[in-house]
Amino acid sequence: MGFPAFAFIFSDQLPMKLAIQSLPALGGLFLFLLTAQCSATRENETPTMAARARLNEAEAAAAADSSRPLTTTAATPVASNEPTPGPSAPEAPAVPAERRTPAEFRAEIKVADAQLKTNPRNAEALIARGRAKAQLKDYRNALTDFNAALRIKATNSVAFYNRGLTRLRLKEYNAAISDFGKAIRYNPTDKEAYFGRGIAKMQLSNYKGAMPDFNKAIDLDPQYADAYEYRGICYASLNKPEDARRDLERAAELNPDATKSLRRYAGK
């Protein structure tokens, strides 16, 4: 499948399928978050190792497998009943900003518009348009496209993944967890969806609950640096310093950007 790379955001390194108190934003959501072998419909969309930007949603800093790009915009989030992450919760990894311009995303929207005029039930065009809108930070309209794709095919794992990533950027964490879970149900080997769900749980300070998701992401890809990094942060939050150090050292071996987390959470 194909954003690792998670916080949520989008990038050429993220599958489009990804905050913890000043935690380094995901490399590559949300969310440059996730790197997996994603289907053709997720071209340029991932939350994993694409770039580490600490994303403070309030301030706006944007940056998951090379087929899931998702970039966040300063869309005005609607009020929700989501719990507020605790003071020690790390920031969700920022989804890497794609190495493309707003004009290119607008052009993609026009292409999708033309395809949808010919075939209004073209789910791939709806998802592509939704991703482009998300890259332009038009999150609410992006959700509308993902919803439409799911009305065409209720088991579309790519649409669920992208909707989850967009909801992560809107801080709708419980809804994001639900969508990532459905993406996993219909594509159990999507490491990016596991990673995204783990990030959403961390945003709710549910570090223990996030662990199985990072474990599974690592099982699916033993070289998944971001999953090691965020699992290490969970261990640190759960007062397991030795386990935290082990994971963070492994993350730094795979991706030097993780050295910042190693110093911060393991004192190295």
Describe this structure in words.
The protein is mostly helical and 268 residues long. It has a domain at 40-206: Tetratricopeptide repeat domain (Serine Threonine Protein Phosphatase 5, Tetratricopeptide repeat, Alpha Horseshoe), CATH 1.25.40. The protein has ten helices and no strands. Residues 68-83 have a biased composition (Polar residues). Residues 60-97 are annotated as: Disordered. This is Tetratricopeptide repeat protein. TPR repeats lie at residues 123-156, 157-190, 191-224, 225-258.
Topology:
Layout: H1 102-118, H2 123-135, H3 139-152, H4 157-169, H5 173-186, H6 191-203, H7 207-220, H8 225-237, H9 241-254, H10 259-266
Helix pairs in contact: 1-2, 2-3, 2-4, 3-4, 4-5, 4-6, 5-6, 6-7, 7-8, 8-9, 8-10, 9-10
Question: Compute the gyration radius: what is it?
Answer: 16 Å
What is the CATH class of the domain at 40-206?
Mainly Alpha
In the CATH hierarchy, what is the superfamily of the domain at 40-206? Tetratricopeptide repeat domain
Task: Give the averaged pLDDT, no decimals.
Answer: 76
Element order, helices and strands? HHHHHHHHHH
Give keywords:
268 residues; mainly alpha; Serine Threonine Protein Phosphatase 5, Tetratricopeptide repeat
